[in-house]
Design goal:
Length: about 475
Amino acid sequence: MLQGLDTSIGTPRRVTAALITTAAAIVAAALIGVWFSLHYVEGERTRDMIDWQTRLGLIADGRAAAVGEWLTRQGETVDGLARNPTIEIYLTELSLAGGDRTRVTEEAAQSEFMRILLVATAERAGFTGQAIGPNVPANVQRQGVAGLAVLDPDARPVVATPDFPALDARLRGLIARARQGQRAVEDIYPGAGGRPSMAFAAPIAAIQADPGSAPVGYVLGVREVANLYAVLNRPATAERSGETLLVRRADGQIDYLSPLADGSAPLTKRLAADTAGLVDAALVGQGAGFALGRDYRGIPVLAVSRPVAGVPWLLVHKVDRAEALADSDARLSRLLWTLVLLVVAVSIALFAVWRHGASQRAASAAAQFRDVAGKFEQQGRLLRLVTDSQPAEIFIADPAGKVRFANRVVADRTGVGADDLAGKALGAIFGPAEAKRYEDLNKVALAEDKPRAVTQRIERDGATRVVHTEHIPL
């Protein structure tokens, strides 16, 4: 018998592994190409964002400067009055007279001059407004909304423009802050009739007073801020959805100080500062910044902000994202699809080229296999012819003890066709005892890697026989 080793060719398995490896490589290359496409498109989007940040920033800078100039003019108005020599002289004399106006030199003339000065300054600087209430010759109290006034050290009016607002707790608190020797500003608040207003106060120093000495009086100006809102929209922008607004943070909320595009009046809309995605809340925390988010309408916007010096305001200029990036989104979407389709096309082309090459190799291999199979078939017929002509039993067994080939003599002895014996265990063909002898001797021949001849006496069919076996490793 011949002891054989299983040396079957693993070509189909290797072909499958090569196919999987190549396909995985092409897919990986395609994914990398898509990633680079997305990265490139995102870079283009970032550049578009930077362009818009610059564009919106220029507008915000200009309007923030205009708002700052407006505030400066109001402050300069009250400062100019506080440094006016006539007012300084009058308040100094009044202070030396212990507040007795009758002891002031030519008090009536000086008072009239100050009144005319205040009225003229108010008309020129905009510290005027239509008082609330009927203007009739009757004892009817009208509610003033704006004006200028000169106050003594105890914040009592000395002279004021007609219909000057009453000194309430808010204005008295402003005067208290001005006692520190510097101009004080009262932020936008709902004035008379709910009209948005501001107040400015400047201390009046005594003539030849020592630095740090107490003021001898104050100039107080109250005005509506309607013309400030007009500054927010000049010059006009090309963006249909462009809007500039003033906001401030107070008590955990965002106050909208200016009129809004949705029709909300100033000081009427307030949103929680922790509103998810609210762009104004994000910008309040940054000061001068740029952000993407949702505005007070819940619409996605691009926005820039600039702080306003001297007041807790933030100027925000914004534009709807849909309008700003419509062309950019369309262009980048086309670019992304073009790049992705290009990657897919290249991947398909690579796969097709590889597939064609693999087909050519497979065809060549198949032809070689056919040649080899033909040779194996010829050798198999030769092996069958040679072994069937021998009187001895000849078979090939693998290391597991299964028969792979048997000649006609084995088939005649067992009564089973030679082809049907392939794959059967030795024990099923020769019986357990005889099969064990063969398997033990086969293992020895394999271990020694050389033929082994053995002669034994065995009992077969009730008689003692001398059996000679040869075990040849393949």
